[in-house]
Amino acid sequence: AQTVTQSQPEMSVQEAETVTLSCTYDTSESDYYLFWYKQPPSRQMILVIRQEAYKQQNATENRFSVNFQKAAKSFSLKISDSQLGDAAMYFCAYYIYNQGGKLIFGQGTELSVKP
Amino acid sequence: DTAVSQTPKYLVTQMGNDKSIKCEQNLGHDTMYWYKQDSKKFLKIMFSYNNKELIINETVPNRFSPKSPDKAHLNLHINSLELGDSAVYFCASSQEFRQGDEKLFFGSGTQLSVL
Fold first, then answer.
1. Which residues of A touch B31 (CB under 8 A)?
2. What single-letter DSSP state applies at residue A95?
């Protein structure tokens, strides 16, 4: 069964510092997509970054970057120059084509940012 | 314009009642989804539709019945509501994957409270 594991229920970072959120996944597929979504207290699900599994180059979006290790099935998110507005629940997710196509989420990591 | 809109945002009802949540997307996507977020913030897929056709039914009780009158709309009807149905329900849409810019767009969620 495909699973996504986020081993850090909570993380904390000082404003302007860098933090890394961990994610591992289990799959037998070779072609898939990986995502990080952010859910602030407003409840809205916001896409932070995505990665195609066939691309070796790590995706980056401004202050957000990933470390994609396909062989290790690891997909961590690095947030640089953390801002107060980054405080949120972060979900790692994996899209599988089989069984109709669906996004499977990890348990989430609650990130707090200290001023 | 809101890309994926769902109504209502909040729904408080008594056990045993029947209620509906509506979802509409104006992105021209072929695929729509319903996700349930429980009290521990875990997100799990319930259903997906592709061009009005049911693709995924993820072992959801028969009391939950999705309906897609056209590819821009996916409604969720829940019969005989139970206390355990209390959760946040998210609608989402995506274009077909492997056609570029693959990602899910989420609505703002409906918080359902069953008393």
1. 101
2. E
